[in-house]
Amino acid sequence: MFKISEFSKLAQISVKTLRYYDQIGLLKPSHTDSDTSYRYYSADQLFLLNRILAFKELGFTLNQIIHLLDDNIPVDQIRGMFRLKQAEIQHLVEMEQARLNRIGNRLQQIEKEGGIEAAHEVVLKKVESQSIFSLRQAASIQQIPQLFDQLEHAMGISSSNSLSKIILWHGCEECEDAVDLEVGYTLEQKTTSLSSHMHELPEALTMATLLHRCQPTSTCTASIDLGIWIEQNGYRIQENEPRREIYLHPDQSDRNYYIAEVQIPVVKL
């Protein structure tokens, strides 16, 4: 038998952790002295502790490990717990990969400063009313391609169609990671066959616009740059009007990017 301090050294785990495992019923000492309350552990318990640490390394919580160590738990239940953990980790990997891709895109933008991004100029112009066929819902920006796929299916067109893509950013104060956005295609004229998803964007007498190079599924600084210009030049954003982003054509140097125009309706202060 080993004192808790000795067992701690053998297992390379702190005495505090062993006491906590005893407290929650995960790893009880083999013997506890009734007079001194000293905890004693057997050498066989090192194998049990190694299993606990192995499960912990796989990402299981201590409560889950208690169930996994239960001799009465069915094999199917253990298999199910491992599959759930596998799916959870896979989801985390995909999220981190998406984050890594966004970092790469951001680095590309930084490296290209002084090129096309530096040539941006804000232009004030009147924008006529226009008909769009659109789909609106709360979603992350990474879901934009899927929303366009849904829209194209409803319209009966392919992504190679020459219609201009437009995204309306309505904002979403209570959506957490999702944004209230609307994806659509601008139409030359109204058509009754698409009336269920079609509506009219109102005319904007003064629209602050900025051309930029971007990817639809990644954030860029164009809106920030335009917002700074609006503030510095004595304008304010018109209330209850979404920010518009029109994708004009793919970038010839990299087909993953578009040349797009950000449009924000403004009024003079």
TrEMBL record:
Domain of life: Bacteria
SUPFAM superfamilies for the chain: Probable bacterial effector-binding domain (SSF55136), Putative DNA-binding domain (SSF46955)
UniProt keyword Hydrolase present: no
Record domain HTH merR-type: where: 1-71
Keywords: DNA-binding
Sample GO molecular function, one term: DNA-binding transcription factor activity
Gene3D superfamilies membership: 1.10.1660.10, Regulatory factor, effector binding domain
Name this protein carries in UniProt: MerR family transcriptional regulator
Source organism of this protein record: Shimazuella alba
